[in-house]
Write a structure and sequence with these properties.
It is built from 5 helices and no strands. By secondary structure, the protein is mainly α.
Length: about 80
C-alpha cells in the first residue's frame, strides 16, 4: 500500500499514467473502428507507455492515419 501512495504523491507518475491512458484509449477505439483485431489485442496486452499506440495511429491504421492528416498539404480545388 505504501508503494501506491508513493505513486500518487509523485505528479510525474500520475501524468505519465494519464498520457499512456489517453493514447491507449484513442488507439484502441481506432483499431476497433477499423476492424483490426490483431492490433487491438496487441495494444490491449502490451503496455509501452503509449509508444505502440502512437506508432499504430501514425503509421498502421487503415483509414485516417494521423501522419497523413498532419503532414499533407491541402490540395487547391480548380473552379
Amino acid at each position: 500500500m505504501n508503494n501506491l501512495n508513493q505513486f500518487f504523491n509523485d505528479p510525474r507518475s500520475v501524468l505519465l499514467a494519464l498520457w499512456a491512458l489517453a493514447w491507449k484509449g484513442f488507439a484502441l477505439w481506432r483499431a476497433a473502428k477499423n476492424d483490426q483485431k490483431y492490433w487491438y489485442v496487441a495494444m490491449l496486452v502490451i503496455n509501452l507507455l503509449g509508444i505502440l499506440e502512437i506508432v499504430y495511429l501514425f503509421f498502421f491504421q487503415k483509414e485516417g492515419k494521423l501522419w497523413n492528416k498532419i503532414f499533407t498539404r491541402p490540395t487547391k480545388s480548380k473552379k
